[in-house]
What we know:
The protein is mainly β.
Amino acid sequence: YIPEIGTTALDSETKAHISMADGSVTIVDTVDYRDLAPNHEYTMEGTLMDKGTGEVLMVNGEPVTASTVFTPTEPDGSVDVTFTFDATGMKGKDIVVFEKLLVADYEAAIHEDIEDNGQTIHFPEIGTEAQSMDGGKTVTISSTMTVVDKVSYKNLIPGQVYVTEGTLMDKATGEAIRDAEGNVVTAKAQFVPEEADGEMEVTFTFNGTNLSSMDAVVFEKLFIVNGAV
Protein backbone atom coordinates (compact mmCIF):
# COMPACT_ATOMS: atom_id res chain seq x y z
CA TYR A 1 0.00 0.00 0.00
CA ILE A 2 1.20 3.49 -0.93
CA PRO A 3 -1.21 5.92 0.79
CA GLU A 4 -2.22 9.30 -0.60
CA ILE A 5 -4.17 12.08 1.15
CA GLY A 6 -5.80 15.39 0.22
CA THR A 7 -7.77 17.79 2.41
CA THR A 8 -10.57 20.35 2.36
CA ALA A 9 -10.86 22.68 5.37
CA LEU A 10 -14.14 24.48 6.14
CA ASP A 11 -15.47 26.57 9.01
CA SER A 12 -18.11 24.62 10.97
CA GLU A 13 -20.56 27.57 10.97
CA THR A 14 -20.13 29.15 7.53
CA LYS A 15 -19.48 25.83 5.76
CA ALA A 16 -16.97 27.75 3.65
CA HIS A 17 -13.28 28.70 3.56
CA ILE A 18 -13.99 31.71 5.73
CA SER A 19 -14.27 32.31 9.49
CA MET A 20 -15.02 35.09 11.93
CA ALA A 21 -12.15 36.17 14.13
CA ASP A 22 -13.87 35.75 17.49
CA GLY A 23 -13.42 33.85 20.74
CA SER A 24 -14.09 30.35 19.47
CA VAL A 25 -13.71 29.00 15.96
CA THR A 26 -14.07 25.39 14.83
CA ILE A 27 -12.41 24.25 11.60
CA VAL A 28 -13.27 20.83 10.19
CA ASP A 29 -10.66 19.42 7.84
CA THR A 30 -12.04 16.56 5.76
CA VAL A 31 -9.15 14.37 4.68
CA ASP A 32 -9.67 12.08 1.70
CA TYR A 33 -7.39 9.06 1.68
CA ARG A 34 -6.51 6.43 -0.87
CA ASP A 35 -4.79 3.04 -0.72
CA LEU A 36 -4.83 2.43 3.02
CA ALA A 37 -4.59 -1.07 4.50
CA PRO A 38 -8.09 -2.02 5.69
CA ASN A 39 -8.54 -2.93 9.37
CA HIS A 40 -5.26 -1.27 10.40
CA GLU A 41 -5.24 1.64 12.86
CA TYR A 42 -4.12 5.03 11.53
CA THR A 43 -3.78 8.51 13.01
CA MET A 44 -4.50 11.67 10.99
CA GLU A 45 -2.56 14.49 12.62
CA GLY A 46 -3.13 18.13 11.65
CA THR A 47 -1.40 21.43 12.36
CA LEU A 48 -2.61 24.96 11.59
CA MET A 49 -0.13 27.22 9.81
CA ASP A 50 -0.05 31.03 9.54
CA LYS A 51 0.13 31.61 5.79
CA GLY A 52 1.59 35.09 6.21
CA THR A 53 4.61 33.88 8.15
CA GLY A 54 4.81 30.26 7.01
CA GLU A 55 5.13 29.30 10.69
CA VAL A 56 2.96 27.14 12.94
CA LEU A 57 -0.05 29.09 14.25
CA MET A 58 0.43 29.78 17.95
CA VAL A 59 -2.50 30.61 20.26
CA ASN A 60 -1.75 31.47 23.89
CA GLY A 61 1.79 30.23 23.32
CA GLU A 62 0.74 26.80 22.06
CA PRO A 63 0.59 25.37 18.52
CA VAL A 64 -2.92 24.63 17.23
CA THR A 65 -3.07 20.91 16.47
CA ALA A 66 -5.65 18.13 16.30
CA SER A 67 -5.71 14.43 15.51
CA THR A 68 -8.15 11.61 14.75
CA VAL A 69 -7.51 7.90 15.23
CA PHE A 70 -9.42 5.65 12.82
CA THR A 71 -9.47 2.16 11.33
CA PRO A 72 -10.60 2.10 7.69
CA THR A 73 -12.66 -0.80 6.42
CA GLU A 74 -11.88 0.10 2.80
CA PRO A 75 -8.67 1.35 1.13
CA ASP A 76 -10.33 4.63 0.06
CA GLY A 77 -12.45 6.99 2.15
CA SER A 78 -12.38 10.14 4.28
CA VAL A 79 -11.99 11.20 7.89
CA ASP A 80 -12.53 14.52 9.70
CA VAL A 81 -9.94 16.29 11.85
CA THR A 82 -11.51 19.05 14.00
CA PHE A 83 -9.68 22.12 15.33
CA THR A 84 -11.30 24.40 17.95
CA PHE A 85 -9.35 27.45 19.05
CA ASP A 86 -9.48 31.11 20.11
CA ALA A 87 -9.34 33.23 16.92
CA THR A 88 -9.39 36.60 18.68
CA GLY A 89 -7.09 39.05 16.91
CA MET A 90 -6.90 37.03 13.69
CA LYS A 91 -8.71 39.54 11.46
CA GLY A 92 -7.05 39.76 8.05
CA LYS A 93 -5.12 36.51 8.44
CA ASP A 94 -5.10 33.30 6.42
CA ILE A 95 -4.47 29.93 8.02
CA VAL A 96 -3.61 26.69 6.21
CA VAL A 97 -4.13 23.14 7.48
CA PHE A 98 -1.20 20.72 7.19
CA GLU A 99 -1.96 17.01 7.62
CA LYS A 100 0.10 13.88 8.24
CA LEU A 101 -1.07 10.27 8.08
CA LEU A 102 0.64 8.12 10.68
CA VAL A 103 0.71 4.38 11.17
CA ALA A 104 2.59 3.15 14.26
CA ASP A 105 4.27 6.59 14.50
CA TYR A 106 5.52 6.23 10.93
CA GLU A 107 4.63 8.97 8.43
CA ALA A 108 2.74 7.13 5.70
CA ALA A 109 1.59 10.27 3.80
CA ILE A 110 1.63 14.06 4.14
CA HIS A 111 -0.28 16.93 2.59
CA GLU A 112 1.44 20.22 3.34
CA ASP A 113 0.97 22.96 0.73
CA ILE A 114 0.89 26.54 1.99
CA GLU A 115 -0.64 27.68 -1.33
CA ASP A 116 -3.47 25.12 -1.41
CA ASN A 117 -6.78 27.02 -1.41
CA GLY A 118 -8.65 23.90 -0.33
CA GLN A 119 -6.67 23.82 2.92
CA THR A 120 -6.98 27.57 3.55
CA ILE A 121 -9.31 29.49 5.89
CA HIS A 122 -9.65 33.26 5.50
CA PHE A 123 -10.43 35.69 8.34
CA PRO A 124 -11.99 38.88 6.85
CA GLU A 125 -11.61 42.37 8.22
CA ILE A 126 -13.88 45.37 7.59
CA GLY A 127 -13.78 49.05 8.45
CA THR A 128 -16.28 51.84 7.71
CA GLU A 129 -16.44 55.59 7.13
CA ALA A 130 -19.90 57.18 7.21
CA GLN A 131 -20.70 60.51 5.58
CA SER A 132 -23.49 62.57 4.03
CA MET A 133 -24.23 62.62 0.30
CA ASP A 134 -21.90 65.62 -0.15
CA GLY A 135 -19.05 63.87 1.64
CA GLY A 136 -19.40 65.72 4.92
CA LYS A 137 -20.09 64.55 8.45
CA THR A 138 -23.32 66.53 9.00
CA VAL A 139 -26.79 65.51 7.80
CA THR A 140 -29.76 67.91 7.95
CA ILE A 141 -32.85 66.48 9.64
CA SER A 142 -35.54 65.90 7.00
CA SER A 143 -37.99 63.37 5.63
CA THR A 144 -35.36 62.07 3.18
CA MET A 145 -32.13 61.83 5.14
CA THR A 146 -29.28 59.93 3.48
CA VAL A 147 -26.12 58.48 5.04
CA VAL A 148 -23.53 56.72 2.89
CA ASP A 149 -21.22 54.27 4.64
CA LYS A 150 -18.05 53.38 2.75
CA VAL A 151 -17.04 49.88 3.83
CA SER A 152 -13.44 48.85 3.27
CA TYR A 153 -12.75 45.11 3.35
CA LYS A 154 -9.72 42.86 3.47
CA ASN A 155 -9.12 39.17 2.91
CA LEU A 156 -12.36 38.22 1.17
CA ILE A 157 -12.66 35.41 -1.40
CA PRO A 158 -12.92 36.87 -4.93
CA GLY A 159 -16.04 35.70 -6.77
CA GLN A 160 -17.92 34.88 -3.55
CA VAL A 161 -21.26 36.65 -2.96
CA TYR A 162 -21.33 38.80 0.19
CA VAL A 163 -23.91 41.02 1.86
CA THR A 164 -23.06 43.94 4.11
CA GLU A 165 -25.80 44.95 6.58
CA GLY A 166 -25.64 48.17 8.55
CA THR A 167 -27.55 49.75 11.45
CA LEU A 168 -27.51 53.38 12.59
CA MET A 169 -26.81 53.69 16.31
CA ASP A 170 -27.27 56.62 18.72
CA LYS A 171 -23.77 57.22 20.10
CA ALA A 172 -25.05 58.68 23.38
CA THR A 173 -27.47 55.88 24.29
CA GLY A 174 -25.93 52.94 22.41
CA GLU A 175 -29.39 52.11 21.05
CA ALA A 176 -30.45 51.66 17.44
CA ILE A 177 -31.92 54.80 15.84
CA ARG A 178 -35.57 54.60 14.75
CA ASP A 179 -37.12 56.62 11.93
CA ALA A 180 -40.38 58.61 12.02
CA GLU A 181 -42.36 55.39 11.47
CA GLY A 182 -40.69 53.68 14.42
CA ASN A 183 -38.51 51.36 12.33
CA VAL A 184 -34.86 50.71 13.12
CA VAL A 185 -32.75 52.44 10.46
CA THR A 186 -30.95 49.72 8.54
CA ALA A 187 -29.56 49.15 5.06
CA LYS A 188 -27.77 46.42 3.18
CA ALA A 189 -25.93 45.87 -0.07
CA GLN A 190 -24.89 42.72 -1.93
CA PHE A 191 -21.58 42.57 -3.76
CA VAL A 192 -19.09 40.19 -5.35
CA PRO A 193 -15.46 41.29 -4.85
CA GLU A 194 -13.05 40.92 -7.75
CA GLU A 195 -10.08 41.19 -5.40
CA ALA A 196 -9.50 40.13 -1.80
CA ASP A 197 -9.20 43.76 -0.66
CA GLY A 198 -11.44 46.63 -1.72
CA GLU A 199 -14.29 49.00 -0.89
CA MET A 200 -18.07 49.18 -1.35
CA GLU A 201 -20.94 51.38 -0.16
CA VAL A 202 -24.06 50.89 1.96
CA THR A 203 -26.64 53.70 1.66
CA PHE A 204 -29.21 54.56 4.35
CA THR A 205 -32.23 56.64 3.28
CA PHE A 206 -34.91 57.33 5.89
CA ASN A 207 -37.44 59.77 7.34
CA GLY A 208 -35.70 61.44 10.27
CA THR A 209 -38.21 64.15 11.13
CA ASN A 210 -38.62 62.58 14.59
CA LEU A 211 -34.92 62.99 15.39
CA SER A 212 -33.18 65.76 17.30
CA SER A 213 -29.53 66.76 17.24
CA MET A 214 -27.35 63.69 17.90
CA ASP A 215 -24.23 61.82 16.88
CA ALA A 216 -24.91 58.66 14.89
CA VAL A 217 -22.53 55.71 14.42
CA VAL A 218 -22.86 53.02 11.76
CA PHE A 219 -22.52 49.37 12.82
CA GLU A 220 -21.80 46.93 9.98
CA LYS A 221 -21.89 43.15 9.62
CA LEU A 222 -20.50 41.15 6.73
CA PHE A 223 -22.32 38.00 5.60
CA ILE A 224 -21.62 35.35 3.01
CA VAL A 225 -24.51 33.65 1.19
CA ASN A 226 -24.47 30.63 3.52
CA GLY A 227 -23.55 32.18 6.88
CA ALA A 228 -22.35 35.20 8.84
CA VAL A 229 -18.67 36.03 9.11
